[in-house]
Amino acid sequence: MKKLILPVLPLILWGIGTAHAQSSVTLFGVLDEALQFVHNANPHNDNLWKLAGSNLHANRWGLQGKEDLGGGLTAIFKVVASFNINTGASSSYQTGSKLFGSEAWVGASDTRLGTLTFGRQYDPVVDLVQPLTADDIFGGTFATPGDVDNNDNSSRTNNAVKYASPVLDGFQFEAMYAFGGVAGSTGSGQTWSAAATWGTGPFSVAAGYIRMDNASTLAGRGFVPATPGAAGTPPGWGTGVTSDATFISIINIAYASAKSVGIGSVAAQYVTGLFTFNARYSNATYKPDGFSAFASTERFNVAAGYVGYQVTPVTLLGAGYTYTHGAGDTSATYNQVSLGAEYSLSKRTGVYLIGAYQHANGTQRIDATHTVTANASVASYGYSSGSSSQEVISLGIHHKF
Is 86 domain-assigned? Predict the structure, then answer.
C-alpha cells in the first residue's frame, strides 16, 4: 500500500493546489501600545499615567479572503476582531465583547458592476470621507472632541447591505441600508448612509451622510418614558438600533436618548511634494422625541485642518486644529490642537509621539435636568476632565502583520 501511495502523493497535492489556485485567505492585524499621560483626567483634575493602546491604529486581527468565480465575479469575505492589548479582552466599540466586533461580512465583487456586501460593516462616510482627514494619518488623537461626528469610527453598523461602485475616472460612490429587524415596524432602529469621492492627481474630495435611528418602541429605547427633560436615570442608545453608540464622552453622553442622529461630512485633501494638506467639515444633529431625556435638537458643527510634512522617507510630522461648536439644547465651543511625529523602523513597525491640547467654554448638558460649565475631553479618549482644559500625550509603538 505504501508503495502505491507514495508515488501518487505529489500528484494529489498538486491537484489540491491547482483546485484552490484562484482562492486566497489572508491573516492580518495591528498591535499598537503606548505610555500615556493625561492632564486633568477626571472631575477631580487628577493626572493619569497609564498604558493605552489603539492610538494610531486600533488593535485588531482578522481574516479576509476571496474566490474567483469566473467572468470577473469574485466571492469575498472579511472578519475582524478588536481587542484590548493590555488585558487581552475582546473590545468592540462600546458594544460589549463581540468576537468580530469590528467587521464581519460576506459578499461578491464584479469588475464592471461593483461590490455588494452583507453583515456588520463600516458605513460609506467612514469608507470614503474619513481617509481624507487627519484621523486616517495620526489616529484618534486628531479626531473630533468626543467623536461626536464619528470621525474616529466609533460606530459600526449591524444587519447592513452595502453597495460600492467601481472607480470610474477617479469617481466612486457607496450606499448602505441596515435593517432594524422589528416586525411590523421596518424602519425602527434602521441606519442608512451614502457617500461619494473623486480624486485626480494630488487632489481628492469626498462627501457623505449617515442617519442612525433609535428604536421607536418603548422596550427598544430601554427606559420608562416621562416628559421631555424629566429627571431620572439617563436613557441609553436603544437595544433595537443597528449602529453602535457614539456617546463616549461628557460632550454628548446626555443625548444618548436621541430619536435619531444624522451626520453630514465633507473633506478635501491636496498632496504636493513632501506636504499633505487636508480640511473637513461636519454637522452632527441629535434629534429628540417625546421619549428623549432632552427637549431641543442639539447640533455639533465641526471644522478641522491638517498639514503633514514628510521630513525623510521614514519620518513624518503632522499638526492639526479642530473647532467644534455645539448649539441648540446647550451651547459650547471646543478648540483642540494636535501634534504628531512618527518614525518608521520598517515597512511594518513604527514608533510615535502624539499629543493634543483642548480648551472648552460654554455649557454642556450632563443629564435630563442638569447643565454644567463645559468640560474638555480630548478627541475620542473619553476622559472627563472636570476642567475647561485637558492634555493627552502618548509615546508608543505599532506593528502590522
Answer: no
Alpha-carbon radius of gyration of the chain = 23
Domain residues for 211?
34-59+104-400
**The total number of residues written for the chain in this structure:** 401
Q: Which are the contacts of 168, defined by CB distance < 8 A and separation ≥ 6?
A: none
What value does the mean pLDDT of the chain take? 89
User: Measured between alpha carbons, how far is 323 from 97 in angstroms, rounded to an integer?
Assistant: 33
- Inside any domain, residue 71: no
Q: Could you tell me the CATH number of the domain that includes residue 231?
A: 2.40.160.10
330 found inside a domain: yes
Quick one: cell of 76?
A: 469575498
Contact 75, 67 (CB under 8 A): yes
C-alpha 94 chain-centroid distance: 12
- Residue 175 burial (CB < 10 Å; 0-12/13-18/19+)? middle
Instruction: Encode pLDDT of 46-99 as tens digits.
Output: 999 999 999 999 999 999 999 999 999 999 999 999 999 999 988 765 555 678
Q: How many domains does the chain have?
A: 1
Tell me the whole-structure pTM to 2 decimals: 0.88
Domain contains 296: yes
Closest CA to 249 of 158, 156, 322, 149: 149
